[in-house]
Amino acid sequence: MAEKLTRLIPCAERVRFSLSGSEAIQAVLRLARAYTQKPKILKFEGHYHGWLDSVAFSINPAVSAAGPAEAPHAVPWCEGIAAGCESNLIVLPWNNVDAVSRAFDQQGSEIAAAVCEPVMCNNGCIPPEPGFLQGLQQLCQGHEALLVFDEIITGFRLAIGGAQEYLGVTPDLAVFGKALANGFPISAIAGRDHVMKLLSEGRCIHAGTLNAQNTAVTAAWATLQFLENDSIHIYARLFEMGQDMRGELAAAARYGHEVLTQGIGPVFHRGFTPVKKVTDYRGTLGYDQQKCLAFWDGMRERGFRLMGRGIWYISAAHTQEDLEKCILAAKQTLAEMRD
User: Fold this and answer.
1) Catalytic site residue 172?
2) How far from 289 is each of 152, 190, 329, CA to CA, in Å?
């Protein structure tokens, strides 16, 4: 399976397996520090990279605690996070290459890696602005830092090679999970040979009793076989269904609601707001949460459970009938909310 992934994923010259996305992220950040011999990690406000202390900051902070938009504070996700973990984090606004450039100018000698969701799926499903990922990559290269993509959500959803294939930007390291084994517990660490070899040489330790356990590997192999055997048709269909669904949901104005639907292909977010585009985390704070809750409740009453943060996934298992029933339920719910 590792050999197959090296053929499918652009950055994957070597691959290792782990159990969850949170574990995989810890492994790649440790690896980045070992490779660069630098301590700090640059992350983006609103991006989620697992629940462990070293990265559980500025995931959904209140504006009152978040600090200046151009230079956000590192806000702990919850109580109980060890004091001092934020000292090795730099938090920046998504889609602001000037802020990234300033951070590298000021602290580039200490930055081991920049980590991001290539599409900010966990808050608003915000795609990168044209040129942003390319600019981020160039800044990393210019300051001898690694670029890390967290493809736990985007991996195998936007393309069989992940968002890096779809967007045409190849990171130094990436992590995958969830879709890799169609729901079975497994994650993958993929990256450049000259970086990954620190693991095989034992200079950087990545351990785990259940890494690459047989059941999950078998499920992942079956999933990859299915996707690879018909990838052109599968992804074309996913994007077509996503476009149809987004179009129908965007038509909520006919029921008297202002709605923004944005994302890529089968991964998108829907929220109630009059704005036409959201480009960073703080833009997501303008969504009308009361209307969102009313919509989710109405959809649940009609047999559809939506994610609380407003993100929608379309799966290869969904049928056209599934989508039509969901669209009908959405229209009925929107009409009910108007009344």
Assistant:
1) no
2) 26, 37, 20
